[in-house]
Structure prediction request, 215 residues.
Amino acid sequence: MASNGIRISTPTSARPKKACMPLSRSKRWESPHEYKGAQPVVKVFLSQSAYCRIVLHSTSELDDEVGGALVGLWCRDRDTDEQFVVVQHMLPARHTRQGSVYLTFTQDTIVDFHDEVEKNHSGRRIVGWYHTHPRMGIFLSHYDTFLHKNFFPEPWQVALVVEPHTSVAGFFIRRDDGALDPTRYFGFYELNGNLGRSMVDWRNLQSAEKESEGG
Prediction:
């Protein structure tokens, strides 16, 4: 699919929001690939409400791929200068073309994302996207990688892949040099909002031995 000049991007003058990384309010979920090789350029914090909506959408269609945009904040920690993104909302993609092994965002999809953020999520950014791989596992295909590069080109924008049949998932995040490994996925920090109780049930991710401290 040609990009047609439409990109979900941020003006080059944009800067991350200065904030404290919310480690004390989060629970760490790690992937099997977490500490192999170079580390990602950003950490991902996923709100429980966004997680639940992603799971609900991911399981709404078990034969064809579905997906959407991840909306939230791009931040830089006040103390450590580390970058992180906070996923607060998700926008199911409309006007798509989809099948059992593909999902295509059209021009109308991209315009709809921008309109929704402008109208209903003021002050937030599109920090990435998500889509499902029914019965296929967690990886980025050649087309997924193309879509990520052309529509989500910022170093801090992430891609989440969910396999709804086996309930597994992972985030794909660029390295400092901009490279993206389509087979190496990362975990995330679950932002607690349910009286400190976890809601995550992606079975390939392992809870850290204890919740992170600090922030």
Summary: The chain has one domain: 18-207. The longest strand covers residues 67-77. The CA atoms of residues 21 and 215 lie 5 Å apart. Helices lie at 48-58, 107-120, 142-151.
